[in-house]
């Protein structure tokens, strides 16, 4: 096999050329993907309509942000949940609603308060902001889910959104709405949270769809570009592994 391989710098030139061509093709694909992602409504596509109906009926919105810390392994998921919460809260405020949020980790509390404050500022109503509308429930995931469910039941929330680091206990947050025929909107990254939510709602953004939902709801083009860049890097990584494997098999 070694005898079939060209000598001199040609293998490296061929490899570099292939790499550049692949990169150009992936960049072109990613640009098309940005527009495609912007056009896809996703599992949260009907959320704005639900908020409009809730506002007409005098209902309320509750956003449960899970119990993930912003200083640990759940940081990325929690930040994505915060972006979703800020965008959804802004939409609710535009309809005249006063959304509430709940968190299950102390490090998440100030970020949630800032997200709600930013939502009011974005709608030109900073004086309507009330820090008491962001609730710290409990640091335990199960205790948080149960406590958030009780808050949602007490408020009689018409729309429930769960976004962030949540496990199987997500059903404790959503059982009230499900019992009233109001399926929740859920965006979680964990397989347990996704599996627990799948039987009770069609409005589910599992796994990496959480980040696409954050980009969609915030309407941030930079977030779409970041998602496209991740796609490119994944393919490049796979291509690099394949090339390295083939080179090793060829005795390079």
Beta percentage is 5-15%
User: What characteristic shape results from the CA principal axes?
Assistant: elongated
State the major sheet: 6 strands, parallel
Q: What is the CATH topology classification name? A: Rossmann fold
Q: Which structural class fits the helix and strand makeup?
A: alpha/beta
List the total number of helices: 9
Q: Strand arrangement, largest sheet?
A: 3-2-1-4-5-6
**What is the C-alpha radius of gyration, as a whole number of Å?**
22 Å
| Mean residue pLDDT | 79
Low-confidence stretches: 1-6, 33-41
Number of domains: 1
Give the termini distance in whole angstroms: 10 Å
Element order, helices and strands?
Answer: HHEHEHEHEHEHEHH
User: Total number of β-strand segments?
Assistant: 6
Q: Please tell me the CATH architecture by its name.
A: 3-Layer(aba) Sandwich
| Percent range of helical residues | 55-70%
Q: What's the CATH class, please? A: Alpha Beta
Question: What do these coordinates show?
Answer:
The radius of gyration is 22 Å and the shape is elongated. The model is unreliable at 1-6 and 33-41 (pLDDT under 50). It is of the alpha/beta class and 252 residues long. Strand 5 (185-188), helix 7 and strand 6 (204-206) form a beta-alpha-beta unit. Helix 1 (10-39) runs antiparallel to helix 9, helix 3 packs parallel to helix 4 and helix 3 (75-94) runs parallel beside helix 8 (209-218). A 6-stranded parallel β-sheet has the order 3-2-1-4-5-6, sandwiched between helices. The chain has a single domain, classed as 3-Layer(aba) Sandwich (Rossmann fold). The longest helix has 30 residues, at 10-39. The protein contains 9 helices and 6 strands, in the order H-H-E-H-E-H-E-H-E-H-E-H-E-H-H.
